[in-house]
Write a structure and sequence with these properties.
single chain; alpha+beta; Archaeosine Trna-guanine Transglycosylase, Chain: A, domain 4; 2 domains; six-stranded antiparallel β-sheet; six-stranded mixed β-sheet; 7 helices
Length: 179
Amino acid sequence: MRPLTEEETTILFEKLSKYIGENIQLLIDRPDGKYCFRLHQDRIYYASEEIMKLAGTMPQKGLVSFGTCFGKITKTKKFRLHITCLEFLAPYAKFKVWVKPGSEQSFLYGNHVLKSGLARITENTAKYQGVVIHSMSDVPLGFGVAAKTTQECRHTDPLQIVVFHQADIGEYLRHEDSL
């Protein structure tokens, strides 16, 4: 477990800014204490300073994880968000997409969001912008990347992809099934 380097911090913050913009500061300085990001075995964890100090007392080989895993840094120095960070991204997301009840299941099986399953989309969503996908009852289901702008979504064919799938809460079940 170690603090992030300057390069790793830049990679993490660039990825997070696609989804939550300038709200990254709200993740670090929270009302319930100060939080930080740490790297452990190519994974970036988000934890309070108290938990981080307690984890620091453990031997490195005995420490499996601590805090919440936000994602993994790949060998090619790219950052991939894990679904475990959804509860932290959803409240601060700048751009959101709501899917119809019939399309929720399709999205939770790992499929992209089609225009026919789109219920609402945040105004002024740019192409390739990170979005958080919600059900119509405002339950966060996952996150993805907008394939079309808000204006293009209004005039596109119902079978066109409007959001590329990145991660969803159904991954827990699919991953457990493969073990």
